[in-house]
Design brief:
With 549 residues, the chain is of the alpha/beta class. It folds into 2 domains: 183 residues, Alpha-Beta Complex (Spore Coat Polysaccharide Biosynthesis Protein SpsA, Chain A), CATH 3.90.550; 217 residues, NAD(P)-binding Rossmann-like Domain (Rossmann fold, 3-Layer(aba) Sandwich), CATH 3.40.50. It contains 21 helices and 21 strands. A 7-stranded mixed β-sheet has the order 5-4-1-6-8-7-9, sandwiched between helices. Helix 13 crosses helix 15 and helix 15 runs parallel beside helix 16.
Length: 549
């Protein structure tokens, strides 16, 4: 191995300002009576590879309070151009000569000096011009570091032309082929973790993290351990996507977003958008001005060829922050008769979607809709006890597995609602069509479920999506009801002739596929972890009845 070049030195230059558009004066916010900048400087001083820390701030009157604060901290300050941050960095480096410049931003108070030292050692040892952990990112957002050789910084300063490159310092270097570069990748993608401060919600997370520890010398892996034991601390800012400030792909008016829904979910791609639930979700999300993309343009091709390379092309084109997967063959008897068709929708599509997501360099959060038919036996099913008795339930459970090592939410649910024209008829459509046309029908008095109305389900999906809740959850009403009682209550509310309902016990001779007799769900885990209270089944039936009045 090449020997470490110990004669090469480095300085850290931190860009900071008091006039952030999204969260003004954020670097002066206090935790434990110290400003965020003060906390950052304390943590940067733990570096064994850097000889000096320089805070580079804009040269204008609005920074006076910040400047005076830094002088009291006895730290080197450079004042330069506010918008051309590249120029500020380069000129700060001229006043503080070194072989390498470490770029850190002032909104990352949890920066770990060990990461900086590791990147510097790589740069020196392997003679790189640029070393980072952000291109692409795999460390938590808030641990972003760029190590730049001084000659490389000069080259970027001299040749960068665009406003974007000058504002964000490193894009010219990242895009150019003239430099020798290396990106440090963590063995687990943690880029969805958000430990930076761009918004007031971010500050709340940082405040709770720092308040948890006795001193400021904890390392970044201790924060991960904290999340595993106390995840609620990290919920405040989960709706904010990485680098929204500089990501040109997402043009969001943040004030408008907050007015509509408090927080922007980002770009949402919905697979299965033409189905019963898909159409309703698209309509609801578009009403809220969400940036929604559908699979309608790819529907025919996906039916023929849903391999991961084609899905990857869709993902790379749309660049979604969130993918909602509703593609499934849900006809239980058809699944039993046509297992290959069911396998394609319920198993192979999830497999290929997950494979494609892993191949992208994007941080994508997945919501995958599953079913209560993965259960059998005594009702009030817990998530961990799986026992499907038909191919529909088996195939849906198999499809869930592919998303479990991604940032994902899997919802096992059952929903009720009125279908649109030209759509497959729902259970309630079938019941009311027959009752209103004076047709006698059989209803099963020994099959139980705990459904939600589609409007309730969509509102909950919206909340979970904003907070990016992860895991496998049952999602249903608080109590169960038999299919026969369901038909009777719905018909009663709508003044139908209930004598047309013939309540019978289900047995295998009536249908192709076996049915679990009790699909009712235990929703305690969901309510506890999300703090969302679920409704009683009667409330959902009343919502359903209103659709038919």
């Amino acid at each position: 191995m090449k020997k470490l070049k110990k004669n090469l030195d480095a300085i850290i230059i931190v860009q900071a300002r008091a006039t952030s558009g999204r969260f003004p004066n954020k670097v002066m916010q206090r935790i434990k009576n110290k400003t965020l900048l003060e906390i950052l400087i304390h943590r940067l001083k733990q570096s064994k590879e850097c000889k000096k820390i320089v805070i580079a701030i804009p040269n204008n009157s609005k920074q006076k309070k910040l400047y005076n604060h830094l002088k009291k901290l006895n730290v080197s300050v450079f004042q330069g151009d506010e918008s051309n941050v590249l120029d500020r960095y380069y000129k700060a480096s001229l006043e503080n000569r070194s072989d390498f410049i470490v770029r850190v931003t002032g909104d990352c108070p949890l920066m770990d000096a060990k990461i900086i030292d590791r990147l510097l050692k790589i740069a020196k040892e392997k003679d790189y011009d640029y070393v980072s952990n952000v291109y692409p990112p795999s460390f938590p957002n808030g641990l972003d570091v760029s190590v730049i050789r001084s000659e490389t910084l000069y080259d970027a300063w001299k040749n960068s032309k665009s406003k974007f490159d000058k504002e964000h310092v490193v894009p010219f270097i990242q895009k150019s082929r003239r430099f020798k570069k290396f990106n440090l990748t963590h063995n687990v993608d943690l880029s969805s973790e958000r430990w930076t401060v761009d918004e007031p919600e971010d500050f709340q997370v940082i405040k709770e993290i720092i308040s948890h520890f006795r001193n400021l010398d904890f390392d970044w892996k201790s924060i991960l351990k904290l999340k595993s034991t106390n995840p609620k601390i990290f919920y405040h800012n989960r709706h904010i996507t990485r680098d929204e400030g500089s990501n040109k792909q997402i043009s969001v008016d943040r004030k408008s977003w907050r007015k509509v829904n408090n927080s922007p979910p980002g770009r949402i791609l919905i697979f299965g958008s033409s189905g019963f639930l898909g159409k309703k979700i698209v309509k609801s999300f578009k009403k809220k001005n969400y940036k929604v993309f559908t699979d309608l343009n790819y529907k025919k091709r996906l039916r023929k060829d849903s391999n991961h390379n084609f899905i990857l092309k869709i993902l790379n084109k749309v660049k979604p922050n969130i993918v909602v997967n509703l593609i499934a063959l849900t006809d239980v008897d058809k699944c039993e008769k046509n297992k290959e068709i069911a396998k394609k929708s319920n198993i192979l599509f999830p497999l290929n979607l997950a494979k494609a997501i892993k191949k992208t360099l994007q941080n994508i959060y997945v919501i995958h809709m599953s079913t209560d038919q993965v259960y059998n036996g005594k009702g009030g099913h817990l998530e961990k006890f799986i026992n499907p008795i038909n191919y529909y339930g088996t195939s849906k459970f198999e499809g869930e597995k592919y998303f479990k090592d991604l940032p994902s939410l899997i919802l096992r649910t059952n929903f009720i609602g009125k279908s649109d024209k030209n759509q497959k008829k729902t259970l309630s459509d079938w019941i009311l069509y027959n009752l209103r046309n004076k047709n006698k029908i059989n209803t099963f008095k020994n099959i139980y479920f705990s459904p939600l109305h589609t409007s309730t389900l969509i509102k909950i999906i919206d909340k979970l999506m904003i907070r990016k809740i992860e895991g496998v959850y049952n999602l249903g009403s608080k109590n169960k009801i038999s299919k026969a009682k369901f038909a009777s209550l719905l018909g009663s509310i709508l003044n139908c002739d209930l004598d047309l309902l013939n309540e019978i016990k289900y047995n295998n001779k009536y249908l192709v596929a076996r049915r679990p007799l009790d699909m009712s769900l235990n929703i305690n885990n969901f309510e506890k972890n999300t703090r969302i209270k679920l409704p009683y089944v009667l409330d959902e039936i009343e919502k359903l009845a209103k659709e038919y009045k």
